[in-house]
Amino acid sequence: MNVNQFWSIIEEAKKTSVGDFASHECITDNLASLDERDIVLWQNIFSAYLELACKRKLWAAAYIMEGGCSDDAFMDFRYGLISGGKKIYLNALNDPDALADLDIDCFSDELIGYAAMNAFNEKIDQPGAGWDFIEDAMSANLLSEQLKAEISSEIKYAKDIDAEWGGLNKAEEIIDNELRALLPRLCEKFL
User: Fold this and answer.
1) For residues 14 and 158, which has the higher predicted lDDT (pLDDT)?
2) What is the residue extent of each domain of the chain?
3) pTM of the model as a whole
């Protein structure tokens, strides 16, 4: 399993899904045709992309688009970005405000996070077993340093990707002003 194969599984699933994003069912089906090790490596690559998208400005975009965004909701938002495919994912990290150009109101897709687990558990004849089996396999099949570097090298972050905004002690009006300054196009579309 390599980066190109990872994205090709998502793109193939997008072709058979309804809408612009790959459904978790289609990804699960595509993964189920692989051997156990490749399913595990796919999940490790998925996890790497998920972590690399954990950026404050992207969280602000999710907050605007979703009308608020908890940490769990932000994870689901990043799942959705990945299910949109490589182009949507990379563009969002390069310019989160460009998400306003897409004809999409919401990216959240919690279930895609379970696609590899479901495919793996079916493969080992343990459907519904949860994360236990695949987590052990994931630990035994960590990504190589070369693969980690390849994944990271694709990403060109917006210069202010970690910009501060919001906070527990700020009034909603102040947060709205910060968001409008940070992501004006998304605010115009969603606020």
Assistant:
1) 158
2) 3-190
3) 0.92
